[in-house]
User: Fold these one by one.
Assistant:
Number 1:
Amino acid sequence: MLDPRITKLADVLINYSTEMKPGENVLIEAIDVPQSIVGELIRLTREAGANPLVTIKNNEITRSLLIHSSDEQLQLIADVESMRMKQVQAYIGVRGTHNITELSDVADDRMKAYQRIWWRPVHGNIRVRETRWVVLRFPSPGMAQSAGMSTAAFEDFYFNVCTMDYSKMSAAMKPLERRMEQTDRVKIVGPGTDLRFSIKGIPAVSCDGKLNIPDGEVFTAPVCDSVNGVVQFNTPTVYQGMRHENIRLVFKDGKICEATGSDTKTLNKVLDADEGARHIGEFAIGFNPYVTKPMLDILFNEKMAGSFHFTPGAAYEDEADNGNRSQIHWEWYAGKTLITVAEKFGSTTH
């Protein structure tokens, strides 16, 4: 029997997030998820008069492709997926996983080639810039374990978060967006954290369920050379299949000059990917009322109520651009901090 919560989630994705219209095409990319959510997305796409294009992927297969890859092979995949992405007006990425560290043993040079040749041209360029898109995780026992919850309790939590009234949230976040648009100086203090930077002149963007599910953040970017101080992140994160904890960064004039954590060597290898990887491309405040504690999932952690995230790597060129360019974009999160913003020097708001 079909879980009615799956139908409700599919309805959010088709009729709210991507707003599918008659005659349009949508690419549904399903990775390690049940057939039921794919079937409902197809059905509701057709009810909207639109045309679904479906691809089914598996993380174990992706791992094998990357481990045994050549640049020529990756380019072939990128060419095919680029052609396909250019045929659609919308993209829905439903991403599950049976093992969050599935890609952890892919060689570093192959992961960099994947990002450079395949991922960024197809998703960073065509999808992000030319389609209406939304991405989400799908619940699994592994996600429940990462959240420290039973499978049943996590599913209840998941569907409450992902099918909330995002139109109501959209209206409620506008005052924060306006405040950040007016802000010059930001100061963040907390355990192990004393960070200062400017966001003057850089747009603030509300995230209300149109691009990510779950959602609930307003993001901008720091003026690239303005970041100074230290930040201690108090939530774990996974990047390219590797878990990192207790990340501590020291900044001088916008650049990360010191980085330590549970795997300092790997952390610095990522930050040495290119010049932009040691500068910050995004600053955001999260406030989804249903996400109250961290788990090993970026899309949930970055929306956690009472948190902020600070992202080494590429800025969002078309939305909140501070000029930073990089092949990486890696969100890190912290909570229980005091954020002070100033419209101008000497005037503060908490």
Number 2:
Amino acid sequence: MNIVLITGANKGIGLETARQLAQGEGYFVYLGSRDKTRGEAAVRLLNAEGITNVEWVQIDVTDNKSIRQAKETVQARSGVLDILINNAGIAGAQPQRIATTDIQTLRNVFETNFFGAVQTTQAFLPLLERSAVPVIINVSSELGSLARHSGAERNPNWDNFDAYSCSKTALNAFTLALANQLRNTKFRINSVTPGFTATDLNQHQGTQSVAEGAKHIVRYAIIGPDGPTGKFLKDGIVPW
């Protein structure tokens, strides 16, 4: 049975990804959550649906001590990690027009969306190395695509999310850098965008359901050793 850790998995796309991997694929999923009450509630919800191959683990991706404790928990209980999904993220206070946005807002968004993913990945690499086909998914966004921002299709409303966009561009750069560093190894490392999904992150204004968004993450989480690596993906390749 493959072992999965999803950060920010107590709600939204993270929770739905856990549901699809546990129920549809039969994987064992650790639901990462900062908050004990919310994490345990998410497990109870899935248990009520007949999904028992899930467990809550406390992890705050902005806190190295919390990350280390989560790693020790997974190591003690499973000994290996096959799939890490860096899903935890925040939108940050808006508007975020880059010429005027408060620097602390920018720092807060990067702390979770970028630095959180990097330090979580670094901590869990030793457990991932024990897997036959270790997979790392960094949950990104089309707002992180420089090609989309510089093209005719760019939505002017994106100006209000500059801090978020920049953090996802940085996350994509991390994906590529790590994939390049681990090229010619068994690792599969990709950024995946779920698309404009209705979640708390966007006040449920997204145009697709969490089930639709999560399926993109699941598709690339379960890839085999011949799957893509070092890519930005959704239905196919998304331009960097």
